[in-house]
Specification:
mainly alpha, three-stranded antiparallel sheet, 5 strands
Length: 354
């Protein structure tokens, strides 16, 4: 058996230098945490100290990683690393994240994490929020905090650890809560214009959203990858349609039954009597016949359920032509004026049929 070669003096010096550099980073982090008033325990990054009778504290170098230390590469790792929480997000949420992460990468991807001081981060925020885009600036800053946490807990990167402590202590302006509500006049105008444009499906969806105070996705559903665990018999290419209203949800007494998933991922089985929902009844009367199966809202151009983007695009076109102000959005149907409100946030506001 060959003897292991003894470490050279040069290799020991290199190892010692690496350990000293890591200890310096830990000391910097602890100093920064104290200055910012951030508890080490609260961050989940407390550094243990050896106590009498305990085994000696050992410090090991972090696992090798292809992460190059830039913000752009941190985004790449967040999207591709198997341990990233990105993979647990819903498909629609992933798409939303991708759009924001792409913007961050395009604007500042070349910046090194080690160079992102509090002042520099605030400059980034101000650039994103310029022109009154407070919500956009806040959302992108929140993604920076999320990326820093990922780099700390998954990549175990020292620069990300310092950046994470910095981001936790920073506060960014929050946009005022939207209080715009859609009125019955808006809904009537939208429905009329949608029919003029040959988009009866948009009119029916608007009537349902307004009178039942449902979100867009709860009415038209969404297209997700085939890998999504939710069952569906409606597919197109490598995607399938889920969660929207179906004609089979409606019985011959005009009772609509369907599940609702709230923001806390709780499921509620709803029952609504449509016999008193005049807008919905008017739109149903305009149909050649009432189907017994299939999605309620079908795009006339494709014969399939809408994608979220296509529905929003056509809704906005109809709304603009109908004279509806730009600050009134499709999402404002959940705050419809003249419809009784409930305490349940973003949930239908009708009576449940027992």
């Amino acid at each position: 058996m060959e003897k292991e070669s003894a470490p050279t003096f040069a290799s020991l010096e290199e190892e010692e230098a690496a350990l000293r550099a890591r200890l310096d980073k830990i000391a910097q982090f602890k100093t920064l945490a104290r200055e910012l008033g951030v508890s080490l325990e609260a961050t989940g990054l407390a550094v243990g100290r050896p106590v009498l009778g305990s085994p000696p504290l050992t410090i090991t170098a972090p696992a090798a990683s292809s992460f190059d230390g830039t913000l752009g590469d941190l985004i790449r790792c967040y999207r591709s690393n198997e341990q990233s929480p990105f993979h647990k997000l819903k498909y629609a949420v992933q798409n939303n994240y991708v759009g924001m992460l792409n913007k961050i990468a395009a604007d500042f991807g070349a910046h090194r994490i080690a160079d992102l001081s509090s002042d520099r981060v605030m400059q980034l925020y101000n650039q994103w929020a310029e022109g009154g885009k407070i919500s956009m600036g806040h959302a992108l800053a929140a993604k920076l905090r999320l990326l820093a946490g990922f780099g700390t807990t998954v990549l175990h990167d020292d620069d990300c650890t310092l950046f994470y402590a910095r981001m936790r202590a920073m506060r960014f302006p929050v946009a005022e809560k939207r209080l715009v509500a859609m009125t019955a006049e808006h809904a009537e105008a939208l429905r009329a214009k949608a029919h003029e444009l040959g988009w009866g499906s948009i009119a029916l969806a608007q009537a349902i959203q307004f009178e039942l105070r449902l979100r867009q996705a709860q009415v038209i559903g969404e297209w997700v990858p085939m890998s999504d665990p939710a069952p569906s018999a409606i597919t197109w290419g490598n995607e399938k349609w889920i969660r929207g209203l179906k004609w089979s949800d409606l019985d011959d007494k005009l009772i609509l039954r369907f599940p609702v998933i709230d923001k806390r991922k709780r499921r509620k089985d709803m029952e609504i009597d449509l016999s008193s929902k005049m807008m919905v009844l008017e739109e149903m009367d305009k149909l050649p016949s009432i189907p017994s199966t299939g999605p309620m809202i079908i795009c006339e151009a494709t014969g399939r359920p809408y994608s979220n983007n296509e529905f929003r695009r056509k809704w906005r076109i109809a709304a603009t032509k109908a004279g509806i102000p730009d600050n009134v959005r499709n999402a404002d149907s959940v705050r419809a004026e003249g419809v009784q409100a409930t305490k349940e946030e973003d949930q239908p506001t009708f009576s449940v049929v027992k």
